[in-house]
Amino acid sequence: MRVPIEVVNARREQLAQLLQQNRYLSVHELCAQLKISEATARRDLAALEKAKRITRTHGGALVDFNLRFPSFQQRQHEAVEAKRQIAAQAISHVSPGMTVYLDAGTTVFAVARLLLERKIRPLTVITASLPVADLLADGEGVKVILSGGEYLRRQSVLMGKTTHKVLGEFSYDLAVMGAEGANGEGVWNSQADVVKAQQSVLRHARQILVCMDSSKLGKTAPIFLSKWSGKLTLVSELSQEQVQAILR
Questions:
Q1: 100, 174 in Cβ contact below 8 A?
Q2: The pTM is what?
């Protein structure tokens, strides 16, 4: 039986809204959430891509967020001094022999660069960030493990179900993460798939540093990452007193 066009259009709009909320979803996840077949999902994705509303990837889709969001290279030049100060604070928590998770993003990349300079060895570093992995791979005494997943070129990061699974298989002495917002309730980020990867790490980390500059404090983002806890510390270029005043 032929499905009425208004039903098809409504379903495609729902699919587009799901992607807008989550930024990235696999075909499997879209099928599960909309209760549709893979063939139907692929037809709908093809139609949305033709309308230039999404970008299809191998096994999933992104909203045009991936094209609008500043690339890793562009973000490298933002808040440079704040990132340097944050990195200096973050590496004070790193000791030889640790297994450390380093998130994607330019603030955590600044942490990785300082780790390389300070030669804290030996270290095992697990990451989904290609720039972090590439930077540390030649560091003597640093073992680098890169998670699997789908490569998003502009963000220079691996994402998807494989990433979540791999990151959940390790235990971490320390996890260094980025985020897009923090308030009295907790920490927030902008992409559901990134949050899923981070939460895979959170469950297995003894200590978590959330690194963000002061422009993100007192703000929220679309996806809630975590409540504050005893093992989660916010690292900013501001003093702890200034941070607490903003988050209060």
A1: yes
A2: 0.74
